[in-house]
Structures are given as structure tokens and as C-alpha cells.
Amino acid sequence: MAKPDRNEVLRQLPIAIGILGGVLLLVNRYSTGDLTPSQARSDVLGVILSALLILSGLLWQKIQPRSPDAVELLGPQGFELDPDLPNPVKTELAWASHLLLTNTVTRSVVVWDRGRVLLRRGILGPNSEVKPGAIVTRVLEKQKAVYLVALNLYPGRVEFDYLPENTQGLICQPIGDRGVLILGANAPRSYTRQDERWIEGIADKLTATFEEYLLDLDDVSITKT
């Protein structure tokens, strides 16, 4: 269910007052028999003020647009880590996922690397396995993140069945050339450019950690420390 915008009344208030003022001036004008010069000047001033209020309200809506409608993602809260990971990798993943969940609009985090799911955290999707589809494969091949601003508009969303089914926005960020960081948001068009740069930095940090502690083998073996 979408959350109401608490600032909507404030955005509409100048427009409503301007329209009300204009209507009252019109009623007063036609209910007055003999119009004196001072009343005429007052009416003109009132019309100008009403127009300015309406214009201010419209400009305010343009400068401060409505926030994207957020929804409650469907699924249980959870925190799952691959138990075979070395402790430094577990710590790094716990730190990174906590930052993403508390400092961005991210509500679901999945980290997949070398053919296995290393972490799921936040609102968990119905499927615990990740089978890379066309979008994830493209991210790995191009080594460039993909941001799906409104996931429900993309036919390719079916490959992300490991995220909550009503996920609104998604970022798929490469972790080196063998893994991806997949983030699900509860509102469309909600990640900013700054968020994207920050997510890229976290992925680079994870890449360095994985290269240090995880074997670069096709059999997805993992070293323990």
C-alpha cells in the first residue's frame, strides 16, 4: 500500500488560497453597486495577490516535486550469510549491507559471487537461489551497473525472483568480474546519483576483499581463515 505524501496539503495550500481569494473578489465585485476608484484599485491589487499565490504554489510543486510513492515490500525480514565464508568476508558483507539498508532507500540486499549466494539481507524474496538472467549477465560482461528505475515496467524483472515480488526499483552493481551486488528499493526512481556513486564505491571495496580471501576458481571453492 502506498504511503500518503504528508507535504501534499502544504503544496496545494497557496493555490487553494489564491483561487479562494479570486472567487471572493469576484463575488464582492458583482455584489457592489457603485464602484469607487479606491475599491477598483483594491480589486486590482487583490487579483494580483491571488495570481501570485497561485503562481507560487505551482512553482513550489515544480521545485519540490512529490516523493516517489513507497510501498511495503512483501516478505520476511532476514539476514542470511554463507556459513563457509571467511570471517573477514562475513564482517565486510555485514558492514556493507548495514550501510546500504540504513543510508539509502534499499530494502533488500543480495550478493552473488562465483556461482553462489553469499548474502541475503533485509526483506527476503521467495527464492533463495540466484540464476543469472540477461540483465545480470550483461552487467558482468559490460562491467557497468544497471539501474532499473521502475522495475514493474521491465519484462526482464522475472529474473529477479529472489527479490520481493513488489520491488519498485533495482540496482545491479558488478563486484569484479565474477559477482554482483543486487539492491531492491521500495519506491521507484528513488536512488540518486550520489547513491549510485556510493554503491559503486562499496562494490569496489567488496571486490578487493573477495580478491584477497576468496579463491578465483571455477569450482567456487572458498578459502577459510
Strand content: 15-25%
CATH architecture of the largest domain: 2-Layer Sandwich
What's the total count of β strands?
Answer: 6
CATH topology of the largest domain: Beta-Lactamase
Question: Which regions are unreliable across 5 or more consecutive residues at pLDDT < 50?
Answer: 216-225
Mean pLDDT value: 84
Helical stretch tally: 5
* Sheet with the most strands: spatial strand order: 1-3-2-6-5-4
How are helices and strands ordered from N to C?
HHEHEEHEEEH
Shape: rod-shaped
Distance between the termini: 45 Å
Q: Report the radius of gyration as a whole number of Å.
A: 27 Å
CATH level 1 name of the largest domain: Alpha Beta
The percent of residues in helical segments reads 40-55%
The largest pleated sheet is described as: 6 strands, antiparallel
Number of domains: 2
State the CATH superfamily name of the largest domain: GAF domain
By secondary-structure content and strand pairing, the structural class works out as alpha+beta
Keywords: Membrane, Transmembrane, Transmembrane helix
Protein name: Cofactor assembly of complex C subunit B
Transmembrane segments: 12-32, 44-60
Organism: Oxynema aestuarii AP17
